Amino acid sequence: MALAGFDQDRLAQIKRHFSAYVDDGRLPGWQVRVTRRGEVVYHENHGWRDVENQLPVEDDTVFRIYSMTKPVTSVAAMMLYEEGRFELTDPLADYLPAFADMRVYAGGPALKPVTRPATEPIRIWNLLNHTSGMTYGFHHVHVQDEIYRNAGYEWAAPKGHTLAQCADDWARLPLRFDPGSSWNYSVATDVLGRLIEVVSGQSLDEFFQERIFDPLGMVDTSFVVRDDLGDRLGALYIPNEQGKATRNDEFGDAARGEVTFLSGGGGLLSTTEDYHRFTQMLLRGGELDGQRLLGSRTVRYMTANTLPGGQDLEQFGIPLFAETRFEGQGFGLGFGILIDPITAMTPGSPGEYNWGGAASTAFWVDPSEEITCIFMTQLLPSSTWPLRTQLRQLVYSALVD
Asked: Does the 88-200 domain belong in CATH 3.30.360.10?
């Protein structure tokens, strides 16, 4: 039987394949939703949100979506852009003065780096497409990453720090390269969140709630555990030496504590249903159920490859971890962009946009085929198993029209 061009028997292979990950202990549990032309063609829950207490993954299970927060922050920024509140070419320092006179790492050890003046200012454009020269401390690739770790930034912010304090801290740290000259996955989207606060006059959580979550009906998406979200929040797992998912409350309980750092790069909790509504808004060109967040041309602009000369991340980026493969993938304003499925060696359509989160969550939107797909689980890090490429194989092999 076919539904919206999908062979249902073939879609059923998704459960057969990923249930094996739960049965042998590699994943605690998972949830998948696939839609076409706005119609849900596949939705499945399997396994546990809490293995130890035998609590199953259910339709309303709450997940830490980590870097799947980034597209939300990017949409928020572009809503302000559409209002004429800034231009993409504006220097960041016009709004966050701490980012004036940035310096670039030129040599030496982390404790005594040699720096030089940056040849270009960080522009808002550079925050949206990760060409700012900033980094993440967890990369463990370059001296700059060590400098971030020494400042207290590896997986999280120093305890009690606000977003404003974090942005000021990052402004004092050297860049890896001159803004615009390369691509490096970084805290840039968190800085973008601070820009949203300054330009809008609202805290990031207030802006998200008023301008995105309430209009879209995203009732279970938040920076903090509130109401019954804590009862529905899945436990967080990491692989042990044998590759089995092992509970890690040291990381997992951070979501349940006090939140002072509103991380636009990775701080949201959400459900598949809520994120489905976000992806449907994108697929429909910025509108859902009569609520328009963005103009259709703005969405189209955000989801085009912004890397110079049409290059992919392999050509223009620094080889390190990101929530995507580099070959055949470009980057837009807040999204990874599939520009060449052949080079990427994965089925899909040129122009598909996507991203994922550190706990192995992922989504993509394929405008050509009018497909959205969301995968939710809670296994850190996302590079443990090739879940995303396998899901893509299973979804596109079921498309038969």
From this structure: no
